[in-house]
């Protein structure tokens, strides 16, 4: 699998000079299977530039998976260029909880909020339920229910026996959790690496209990408990500057020399 970040910011996009290194776009992750099949995760604002890349790469069949339907994970969809081309075959996958993906996107793309409705888009668009154990282009996808307001799916991707997990918008230590901490440990165990929401520091978290996000230290604990040596933080808070994130990551790297610790950044690519 080839993996590339197109958006790593949480809640709202930012365009400040001091957020240039990690990027200002909201969540969008790109996976390309060994056979070349495109799998897009979430349609945050980062999906705009991914759309341009997919046009250049002449990808005709595109899959888009949605972890959940909060604004920062769907707001780029209307600017995803392939949806405006007749030749493109686009499969959209979302959980059928509270609302279907079709309804969620239709709410967003309705007048007077946006002039083009989902039903008039030229691409050949189909809607599917994102379910545990499904396979797209040779990549197996497993899901776990994250702890987040409304709902969010955590995802594991496996191809040729190698896995990574993507858990954005997840409160690992939530009281009244849907999913217990030990089940997240089990879910990521055996993965080559995992990407996890680390929107807060421990201090800020105390004032944001129940908001559905985790801290840098909680994510490190998860890596240690699951024995996964490589971890990337994502869903960076809109108020976090590059130097703020750098200081936290540098201190953790110094403290945990047995782990590979990084903050995900727009444009960063990983091969698995
Ligand atoms: Zn989010
Ligand atoms: Zn969310």
Structure, explained:
The protein is α/β, with parallel strands linked by helices. The protein has a single domain (about 1-270), classed as Ribonuclease Z/Hydroxyacylglutathione hydrolase-like (Metallo-beta-lactamase, Chain A, 4-Layer Sandwich), CATH 3.60.15. It has seven helices and 14 strands. The strands form two sheets. The protein has a seven-stranded mixed beta sheet, covered by helices on one side. The chain has a seven-stranded mixed beta sheet with strand order 7-8-9-10-11-12-13, with helices on one face. Strand 9 (about 155-160) and strand 10 (about 160-165) form a beta hairpin. The chain is globular and about 50 Å long. The mean pLDDT is about 95. The structure holds zinc ion (ZN) (2 copies). This is Metallo-beta-lactamase domain-containing protein.
The figure for the number of domains is: 1
Coarse structural class? alpha/beta
Strand content: 25-35%
Low-confidence stretches: none
Q: Find the CATH superfamily.
A: Ribonuclease Z/Hydroxyacylglutathione hydrolase-like
Instruction: Report the biggest beta sheet as strand number plus sense, adding barrel if it closes.
Output: 7 strands, mixed
Which series of helices and strands comes N to C? EEEHEHEHEEEEEHEHHEHEE
């Amino acid at each position: 699998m080839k993996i590339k970040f197109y958006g790593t910011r949480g809640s709202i996009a930012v365009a400040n000079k001091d957020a240039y290194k990690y990027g200002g776009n909201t969540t969008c992750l790109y996976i390309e299977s060994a056979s070349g099949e495109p799998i897009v995760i979430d349609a945050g604002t980062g999906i705009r530039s991914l759309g341009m890349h997919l046009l250049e790469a002449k990808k005709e069949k595109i899959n888009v998976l949605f972890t959940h339907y909060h604004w920062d994970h769907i707001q780029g969809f209307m600017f995803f260029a392939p949806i405006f081309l007749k030749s493109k075959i686009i499969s959209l996958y979302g959980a059928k909880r509270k609302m279907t993906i079709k309804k969620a996107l239709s709410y967003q793309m309705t007048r007077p909020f946006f002039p083009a409705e989902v039903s008039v888009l030229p691409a050949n668009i189909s809607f599917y339920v994102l379910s545990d154990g499904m396979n797209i282009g040779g990549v197996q996808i497993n899901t776990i229910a994250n702890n987040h307001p409304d709902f969010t799916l955590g995802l594991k991707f496996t191809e040729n026996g190698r896995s990574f997990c993507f858990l954005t918008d997840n409160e690992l230590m939530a009281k009244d959790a849907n999913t217990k901490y030990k089940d997240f440990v089990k879910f990521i165990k055996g993965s080559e690496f995992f990407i996890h929401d680390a929107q807060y520091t421990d201090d800020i978290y105390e004032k944001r209990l129940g908001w559905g996000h985790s801290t840098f230290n909680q994510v490190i604990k998860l890596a240690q408990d699951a024995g996964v040596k490589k971890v990337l933080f994502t869903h960076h808070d809109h108020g976090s500057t590059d130097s703020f994130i750098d200081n936290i990551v540098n201190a953790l790297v110094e403290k945990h020399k047995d782990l590979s610790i990084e903050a995900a950044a727009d444009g960063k690519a990983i091969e698995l």
